[in-house]
Specification:
By secondary structure, the protein is of the alpha/beta class. It has 17 helices and ten strands. InterPro entries: SBP (IPR006059), Sperm_putr-bd (IPR001188).
Length: 362
């Protein structure tokens, strides 16, 4: 009886909280990752206002989610992080009855994403992309010759080449999963390996080029590439392409390029999810359904330069975006992609220890 009473009280409190927040939702998304008018259009169509906050690393998001009571209605984790968060009970199943625009989604891509969320029960793809190399074309030409083609991780992982760019600045993403796996692939190892020996081998190689790295950050490199403050970065595809567009709008004498290395690259999905304790789950479903509208999805892709998984939006995407192989990679490039599953506890400890060593340079 006491348990029933507690449940009844909790249900009443939840209902009151839902009523109190029915006209607003709280969204937590990556920085620089939505069209300027998306939120305004959503509010105009639904009457629901949006409190929009941003993060720049999966670790930041995960800490908020695992702590509980985040207050967010919609969050956007990357697929491998989301997978273990689902196992921890962080996200609620989606109500498909509230998501009529699910029919717009690319079934093949959703099937790939189902490897992280069986049956896509808790999530919908927001955007996807690759992790590759952002570079200042002028700096590369000056140091490696006018005819040099950036098509290999060697420009960052070969100590002799990387040293040529130390003066103008190299940035690494602030996450081990975007540096250690490509280092493994560069060395001829499997990037999805969980062997401690392979991790140590990759980390030893990265330590050799660690002195060339100016900083670790997962968003600062966008503006720094655009402004010429750095000349090389390990970066996410759309972020680098945003930097390229910003650079083109100034009187800079250089361009910013993005390369998917021939050795291969990490293919990832960023997912729309609803926390289990979301204050306004109905509003959250309305937001996710709105994002899956064909025109809205196209507007976002056209602005942020990341591909979406919305088949209905394809005719609405700008031709120069749709035909850009750095946005929508070729079949040949896709053959070298890998996806990452969550590490087990042992591998996570190894990865974290080595990343601390790399960040501190000791």
């Amino acid at each position: 009886m006491r348990n029933r009473f507690i449940l009844a009280v909790c249900a009443a409190m939840a209902a009151q909280a839902g009523a109190a927040t029915a006209d607003s939702i709280n969204v937590f998304n990556w920085s620089d990752y939505i069209a300027p008018d998306t939120i305004e259009k959503f509010t105009a169509e639904t009457g629901i206002s949006v409190n929009y906050d941003v993060f720049d690393s999966n670790e930041t998001l995960e800490a908020r989610m695992l702590a509980g009571s985040s207050g967010f209605d919609v969050v956007v984790p990357t697929s491998d992080y989301m997978q273990r968060q689902i196992m921890a009970g962080v996200y609620q199943p989606l109500n498909r009855d509230l998501l009529p625009n699910l029919g717009n989604m690319d079934t093949d891509l959703m099937e790939l994403a189902a490897a992280f969320d069986p049956g896509n029960e808790h999530s919908v793809i927001y955007l996807w992309g690759t992790t590759g190399i952002g570079y200042n074309t002028q700096a590369v030409a000056e140091r490696l010759g006018e005819d040099y083609v950036v098509d290999s991780w060697s420009i960052l992982f070969d100590p002799e080449k990387a040293a040529l760019f130390q003066d103008c600045g190299i940035a690494w993403l602030d996450t081990e999963k975007e540096l250690i796996p490509p280092a493994m692939r560069y060395l001829g190892l499997e990037p999805t390996s969980t062997s401690e020996e392979d991790f140590n081998t990759a980390a030893d190689m990265l330590m050799q080029v660690r002195p060339t790295v100016r900083y670790f950050h997962s968003s600062q490199y966008i503006s720094d590439l655009a402004n010429g403050e750095i000349c090389l970065a390990v970066g996410w595809s759309g972020d680098v392409l945003q930097a390229a567009e910003r650079a083109s709008e100034t009187d800079q004498e250089f361009e910013v390029g993005y390369a998917i290395p021939d050795e291969g690259a990490h293919l990832w999905f960023d997912m729309l999810t609803i926390p289990v304790d979301a204050p306004n789950p109905e509003g959250a479903h309305a937001f996710i359904n709105f994002i899956m509208d064909a025109q809205i999805a196209a507007d976002i892709t056209n602005y942020v330069m990341f591909p979406n998984a919305n088949s209905a939006s394809t005719p609405l995407i700008d031709e120069d975006v749709l035909n850009d192989p750095t946005v929508y990679p070729s079949d040949a490039a896709r053959a070298g992609f890998w996806t990452l599953q969550p590490y087990d506890n042992r591998t996570e400890r190894v990865s974290t220890r080595l990343w601390t060593r790399l960040r501190t340079g000791q």
